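Format notes (please read before filing issues)

Several people have asked whether sequences and structure tokens are stored in separate files. They are not. Every record keeps both together, in the order shown below: the sequence lines, then the token lines. Line labels are part of the format and must not be stripped during preprocessing.
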Amino acid sequence: MPVRTAEAEWKGNLTEGSGNLKVGSGAFDGPYSFTSRFNEEGTAATNPEELIGAAHAGCFTMALDAALTKAGHNPTRLHTTAKVRLDKVGDAFSITKITLELEGDVPDLSADEFETFAKSAKENCPVSKALAGTEIELIIK
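Then the structure lines:
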């Protein structure tokens, strides 16, 4: 099985320095900073939590698609938004919650059946398993 790589480089002190994050495939190479991580206002830089959210949304959506397809239900569209919450807990920061917001179009599948597949995908995708110490909420729209 493949081993995926990513790199981080940081220059300067924590609050005034800046860094760069890069994935091994070359699909992403971009800046990150204290501001992009800890301020609510948008910046032109990313942060580790945003990348975790992208990874989780992608993994969950693929796991759901695989389960639906295996059961003979071919989705026409699945869309997941991951919201990763970073909170100060004591003297340190922690990812306290990830909310997966799911929309999907699956012909000939009831809402209850869709929810059952989605809950299973949330529990069983590899990124959910890696993040098992974090509360993961699923909202189906």
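For reference, the curators noted about this record: The longest helix spans residues 48-70. The helical segments are 34-38, 48-70, 111-124, 126-130.
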